[in-house]
Amino acid sequence: MVSFIRSLSYSKKYNKIIYPSIEKKIREYRVYTKRIRKLSVKSTAREALDKSRSDAAVSSICLLYDNVNMELAAEVLFSFEAIVQYLNSVCLRSYTGTEPFLKLIFSSLRDALNLRTDSYENYFTFFPSKDDDGYLTILVEKCRQKVLLLPSYHVIRDHLAAFLSLFIDLQVTKFSSDDNAKEVNLINWSAAHGQKYSQLSCWEYCMAVDSTLSIRLLLAMATDPELSEQKAENLNSTFFPWICCIQKILEGYISYNDDLFAGNINYDFYYDNLKEYENRIVFFTDRALKLRTSEWSHTRTAVKLLLSIYITHPKASEGMNRITSKALLKAGGRGMSFYTLAVRLLRSKKYF
Question: Per-residue pLDDT for 320 more than 80?
């Protein structure tokens, strides 16, 4: 009964608050893409926006905790992820993966989250076209405007800065390495930064950092005027690395064939078989839920919804993925059928 009530509540909130907010922002941002003169860059920007609906669905698991201002949180998270998705698309399509180029464009995330006081730079200085006609700068300013509204930003600022620094460093390492050196460079990077997490493989530590769920959670929690350091720390410890790893494994499982064809990095490639990453998802779920915080029931719901969002994806029923999806449905435990039904209904409305 609890699962039914929570899944119904989630569906209603997505319908009434999250989806309308996201659609409004997508329409607004799509207008900004019209200023981009170079067609290939404009195409990249619009492609990134099209992917933002799926990002919003994943972000929604961060909005369910007590005292989160759902409307403000949805706007902040969308604004941040729109930049991340755009940068990722630019990097995947660009042949200029030099460290100066990557460090400069990813510095936009620090500006977007108000983590430095410097004036905005010309982020595309090292890009072949030299400019995206100010599109990225607009995204940064729009995100920053929302971040400035967060009543408990001061509580999360240090955590945010630490996670973002790791995330940017990983992106620079990942995108600046040529195909022959990429694996070695990522292994070395993980060995240098992930010693604290002995229960993770080097690839799983990269997964946890590469997922922005921990950053999204902190931003959502900062909409709570009464957020305490302890609550932020407790929730953060359930998401990083455990739920972040779950999200990245699921993302890799959905995009496995596409990434294999395109030659993109996919951390699921480094598992021996489907059963191994099924087992790891169960392990990470157990670890996340072992931390009995006051928000434990919400975290349990968040994990179930995260699983549901990915196993209801159309690609989750293709080929061998169908077997894995059934196993993950079972791994989610009691009440999963209610959550998957709620998510399927939202998918049927083309919400994501």
Answer: no
- Residue 334 class from Cβ within 10 Å (0-12 exposed, 13-18 middle, 19+ buried)? exposed
Tokens of 58: 């994943």
* Per-residue pLDDT, 324: 75
What domains are there in the chain, each with its CATH number? 2-348 (1.10.600)
Contact 61, 51 (CB under 8 A): no
Return all residues near 284 (Cβ < 8 A) that are at least 6 apart. Answer: 241, 242, 243, 245, 246, 249
**Residues 97-109: pLDDT tens digits?**
788 889 999 999 9
Cα four-point dihedral sign 341, 342, 345, 347: negative
